[in-house]
Design goal:
Number of helices of chain A: 12
Number of domains of chain A: 2
Largest interface: A-B, 96 and 98 residues
Structural class of chain A: alpha/beta
CATH class of the largest domain in chain A: Alpha Beta
CATH architecture of the largest domain in chain A: Alpha-Beta Barrel
Strand content of chain A: 5-15%
Helix content of chain A: 40-55%
Oligomer: homodimer
Distance between the termini of chain A: 31 Å
Shape of chain A: globular
Number of strands of chain A: 10
Order of helices and strands of chain A: EEEHHEHEHEHEHEHEHEHHHH
């Protein structure tokens, strides 16, 4: 069974086919967070600190760290800022990190200071990125998130995205990187823009798992971009993706709906022994009795649900 | 693609592989509802009336009707009461019905008065039930819910439950009933009693769909019997089952969490053109802007989610 193993100085996180869903906290990312970008540029890391502590407390198993504060000369600003942010986060929490940048020099600077075995986020199917980032991944012997787009952008055809993923896995093999160290992001498009976005991702996740034997991840909240009641849509997208076999997501653990979805999915997928995680997160004895649904098939023979439940 | 077609006097409901999830309203069922049982025995159908109207208003596509008011001589009391209840419900709403009884004489009485093409709920793998109910199903040319237990009760082994389902489908064929008219209930056990209950059902649903080509249903709320926060667990069980390929459920459409799950699953599975059903159910323009998640991958090339969303 495929396992992508991450380490911090003291902790291990495994993204795997037979593991609870791996929650990668997305919050430490100034992209689209103007206030955070301004703070980080000014050397104020109070929000980064708060986000690091809050996400781990909420159940994140890995923290994504991005320092893309500006589009203006990121090659100069991002490497030292990403390294500094990683060192700070490592001093605050003990979970493994995901080093997130589209600037190769920033990934290198991050890898130089990251402890343990971090995840690199990300490489794409673009030639220049493959040949710049894969050697870095090999040099540090770390796993990498691979996004299934290439020079032509993101294809609306899931078969093309699968082909890009396959190319990345094969190219990685040429560099001596095994498939278990590639976590494919099949790319989640907004359901409001592309009606088949959800069905596409579910089909891709199944193919990536069964045919390429790789772990998968995604920027989950993209699915609900532009539609109302995003929290509920995101939560069901996560549990449905987990049911299909997606093994991790870059998500917001501070959204209770999302974490409820992950806890429910872990329990329903059989990764929550004795429902202990569910019970810990839902300490409300009153709620246990809620609803008579459990009894509605009670007439249906000795093996009925009620009887099974009482046999606990 | 498998389709189980139901009719009322004026409406059609299809349970199918390429159809939105079929919500079968479970409320009109005195089993485990003492107050409702007492009302129905006393000839008071006010709750039945309210439940019929409310469930259809909430989005139920089919209504299950059960008149199991007492374990005392059900063969005498249930047939006339079920027929009366069905005639009342048919006078109130126009959706197809599911005639629900473990008493063959009650199913016969219900079929005699039901308009259109109702669903019969249910037969099991028990010999006496197979040979009593399948001829009735054939006589009226109606589809039937088949529960995968037999004389030995409900097996904890999903392969045994699959074998029972297969036996029922084969026996039905002997009676001239086609597989598309059999809706298998793989039986949902409480996750609190059996940790593998969810994984078992997901695996069974996939096998029933791929190997027997049959539609599936279940008493969804059984999954959360005895654990806290049942509404959230039930909702994710429903959306995850729909992601795996379950095509209907006998559920409570008055639980908003459950209907949110079904609407999200229909949208994510590609059965909600232009997200119209989702938008109708979530008329809150403010919510559309909620969260910056949709932008977090915004730096990733021309095809990024934000751009796709803006291209609407």
């Amino acid at each position: 069974m495929t396992e992508t193993v991450l380490h911090s100085a003291t902790k291990t996180a495994i993204i795997g086919f037979n593991q609870p869903f791996c929650v990668i906290g997305e919050r430490i990312n100034p992209t689209g967070r103007k206030k955070l970008a301004a703070e980080m540029m000014a050397g104020d890391f109070s929000t980064v600190t708060a986000d690091a502590l809050a996400q781990v407390a909420a159940g994140a198993l890995v923290l994504d760290v991005n320092a893309g504060v500006t589009a203006v000369d990121p090659n100069l600003t991002e490497p030292p800022l990403l390294a500094k942010t990683i060192e700070l986060v490592q001093s605050l929490v003990d979970v493994p990190l995901s080093i997130d940048s589209s600037v190769p020099a920033a990934l290198a600077a991050g890898l130089a200071v990251a402890k343990g075995r971090p995840l690199v986020n990300s490489v794409t199917g673009e030639e220049d990125r493959l040949e710049t980032i894969l050697p870095l991944v090999k040099k540090y012997n770390v796993p990498v998130v691979a996004i299934s787009n290439d020079e032509t952008g993101i294809s609306y055809d899931p078969d093309v995205r699968f082909a890009v993923a396959k190319k990345i896995v094969e190219r990685a093999a040429d560099h001596g990187i095994k498939a278990a160290d590639i976590v494919i992001d099949p790319l989640v498009m907004p359901i409001g823009a592309l009606n088949s976005a959800g069905a596409q991702v579910f089909r891709l996740v199944r193919r990536l798992r069964e045919e390429l034997k790789v772990n998968t991840t995604c920027g989950a909240s993209n699915i609900s971009f532009g539609i109302p009641n995003r929290r509920v849509m995101n939560a069901h997208f996560l549990s449905m993706a987990a049911a299909i076999g997606m093994t991790s997501a870059i998500m917001n653990p501070l959204h209770k709906e999302d974490m409820d979805a992950i806890r429910a999915a872990n329990t329903l997928n059989g990764f929550d022994p004795d429902c202990m995680a569910w019970l810990r997160a839902n300490r409300d004895p009153a709620a246990a009795g809620e609803g008579a649904g459990g009894r509605r098939r009670g007439r249906r023979g000795a093996g009925d649900a009620g009887a099974v439940a009482r046999s606990e």
